[in-house]
Amino acid sequence: MRTIRIHVDAPLAAGATLTLPAQAGEHVARVLRLTAGDPVTLFNGDGQDYPATIDAVGKREVVVCVLAAERVDNESPLRLTLAQGVARGEKMDLIVQKATELGVARIVPLLTERSEVKLEAARAEKRLAHWRAVVASACEQSGRARVPEVMPAVSLDAWLRELADDGALRLALLPEGTRKAGELRFPATGGVLVVGPEGGLGVRDTTALADAGFQGLKLGPRILRTETAGLAALAALQALHGDV
């Protein structure tokens, strides 16, 4: 039987009774057509699943009762941050969704030298909320109980100035890169992977990355589209050094 998992941005505990967020409640009642007594599983990103049952389904709300808390241990031992040049339209949604399924720990939308997407303040806020919703949905589907952090979109230069010096391996996906995925050695703090937008990373970008200690990673002899490149790299790194 399929497990219905629902992300709830609120504290959860065994014995608690709560009303599902409006969108989740509508999905449960109108799309899934669940009724009182049906089981669901809640999670809020704290690393636990919370089995629950539906207490009541009304016209405007769905009330559930949390039965227990169960630790979920399916996070990759390889902690990876994907710093992705913001791609146009649904490409970015695809990247965010699949990166979550592949176990990424953090996503940073980057505005780079060749970025074609312009995000002013109001639009940037809406896109961030949308990407976070995509991540939560991907966690519901994939069984993750830890929700990857999605940072606000930021310029490459500003991000590099604030990047923590925590020893994580710094990589940039480049056609001219010299490092190969199989030869890498990751520290306990994991790695950071930069992927350019549709037009790739420009000269100023690659110079700034090199100055910040990033090494060029090459996957193979073919040039990959931005919506393919980062996901292929994440899958390869997880297969070689993580849990895939």
Task: Name the descriptors.
six-stranded mixed beta sheet; 31% helix; 13 strands; Ribosomal Protein L25, Chain P; alpha/beta; 2 domains; elongated; single chain; Alpha/beta knot; seven-stranded parallel beta sheet; 244 residues
Number of helices: 6
Taken from the alpha-carbon principal axes, the silhouette is elongated
CATH class of the largest domain: Alpha Beta
What count of structural domains?
Answer: 2
Which secondary structure elements does this structure contain, and how are they paired or packed?
Blueprint: E1 5-7, E2 17-19, H1 22-31, E3 39-43, E4 48-57, E5 62-66, E6 70-71, E7 80-85, H2 90-101, E8 106-111, H3 121-142, E9 149-150, E10 154-155, H4 156-162, E11 169-173, E12 191-195, H5 203-211, E13 215-217, H6 226-241
Helix pairs in contact: 2-3, 2-6
Explain the overall architecture.
- The strands form two sheets. Strands 7, 8, 9, 10, 11, 12 and 13 form a seven-stranded parallel β-sheet that branches.
- Helix 2 runs parallel beside helix 3 (121-142) and helix 2 packs parallel to helix 6.
- The chain contains six helices and 13 strands.
- It is of the alpha/beta class and 244 residues long.
- It starts with a strand and ends with a helix.
- It folds into two domains: 5-71, Beta Barrel (Ribosomal Protein L25, Chain P); 80-241, Alpha/beta knot (3-Layer(aba) Sandwich), CATH 3.40.1280.10.
- The chain is 31% helix and 23% strand.
- The mean pLDDT is 94.
In short:
This protein is an alpha/beta fold. The protein is built from 6 helices and 13 strands.
